[in-house]
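Dear colleagues,

As part of the handover before I leave the project, I'm documenting each prediction I ran so the next person doesn't have to rerun anything. This entry is a single chain, and its sequence is reproduced below.
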Amino acid sequence: MPDPVLPAARQLAFDELDTPLYATTFVVVDLETTGTSPDGDAITEIGAVKVRGGEVLGEFATLVNPGYEIPPAIVQITGITTAMVYAAPRIEAVLPGFLEFAAGAVLVAHNARFDTAFLKAAAARQEIPWPNPQVLCTVKLARRVLTRDEAPSARLGVLAQILGASTTPTHRALDDARATVDVLHALIARVGNQGVQSLTELLDYLPGVTGTQRAKRAFANDLPAAPGVYLFRGPSDEVLYIGTAVNLRRRVRNYFTGSETRGRMKEMVALAQRVDHVVCAHGLEAGVRELRLLAAHAPPYNRRSKFPKRGWWLTLTDEPFPRLVAVRTPTRTALGPFNSRADAVDVGLTIAEFAGLRTCATRLTRAAKHMCQPAIVGGCPAAGDDGADAATYAPAAHSVRDLLTGRSDTLLRAMLERIETYSTAEHFEAAARLRDRTAAVVTKLARTQRLAALARLAELIIALPDGAGGWEFSVIRHGRLAAAGVARRGTPPMAVVDQIVAAAETVVPDLGDAAASNGSALHRHAMPIPGIPDAATTTADSADRQLMFSDDVPPLLGAPPEEVGVIARWLAKPGARIVRTSDGYCEPLHGAARWVAWAQLAREAAEVRSEQEQYLAER
């Protein structure tokens, strides 16, 4: 018989956690085991009760054969003997049924850490994904609700007697689960008069969430259940933290519950005095607005806002004998951005080696000669016995420009051929080093060329299904989000497109060195009316298009790389469609995109450890 297919159990969303406690489904579970170690001991009995609104919906109970004799000390406590579990099913047969029984419910246990640890360990041994349900511990809840004088011990037997449980715990799974149900209901009744009416409020009531933190949940009361950006502000109205959400109210409320365990965020919440928000049409607008607000405010509790301009670019210098240098802001054809200057330099050295581009920093005039001498190890890649004048050196610089712009992949092919040569000669270490260096070049080239293709479009309109029969629209101009809107189900979509295009932001691209050499900035014209050609506009746009594809313009035309990257990921989502473009969207014919799959295989190969390394790691 094939293995049973379990339903997709999932963790409850916060909208579901706000369901009143009387409408929340709980599965109260108790285990009996052969010991206290989830790794070395095994489950001998599972008992569970499913309840909602005080009504028992079902029970689950079974003995479990641990596969070995039960220790006498455990037999004395539980009364479960080896003979009793001899004919019982193994945990492999029991666990799928229990997970199906508990699917979609809140898991409750007395000392929940003990029970969930055994269940997780059993699931891991069977390679069953743990559904990660919301867990409630009645020990923690009792410690929060009852004083030490009222309940000197939080043991189940003591609590059952104090709270008047109808079932007496017997160290048998089902009896103890039934007793835990009574304890749970009694504890919930105690906190009901303190305003605890939903699971979220009950979790907030547990230790770990201070009263101040709970009180600040009111910050989320007036927030809409819509996508957008939220800003936590401090005592001096400074921005502490910025984030995005598909549901602002639900996401912000999350910071004031027990589910927020990050110490950094708890510190931020303690300082926060209010929460501002910006409602957005959809997730792309929220992501872009977040990036722009991070750059404007640099909030201290956002990790990626610490170094907003830390990117490095590789670009060719403007001199008779060009060389690749790392710069912060590209003004002409460039490769990047890189997270560190060292990464940029490493990629630059690889490209220079195969292009024959010089790496020396000697200043050379147009009439001079490059005279670096060959070296056995290292040395300048452009070295030669007779030297080279500017005309002889020029092809090296042209090959690098062609590589960066995607006009030619000759240098990439040379790298791959060198790797093959090393492998054939059994120089495997050299081949592996060059493989890793080439993969880095390919990955960075492919990303830069893809983003540059987006940045060169004067206008691009993207549509993405909203999942409810409508469409989410984005107007992109030169790699920047210029407008966003939504056409709900039943709304004519093109009418919405026309409205947001008419109200879209005007974006003037940064031409870098090309602007100075051309004597003026790029001509800006209104988008032509479909079906009515404008000869003057068409001629100017054609000239502008040629200018944007020259070697003197920055790859992203001044657009922030993070923003263009967010747009590129949005365009790659399943179901995304291009409604209209000013020019056809395309990537370079001889760009690095065709080598991306090879680079992925190369990275995976680099991560595989040898048998000897694996053996040493396991010792």
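Residues 55 and 394 are 84 Å apart (CA to CA). DSSP finds 23 helices and 15 strands in the chain.

All the best with the project,
I.
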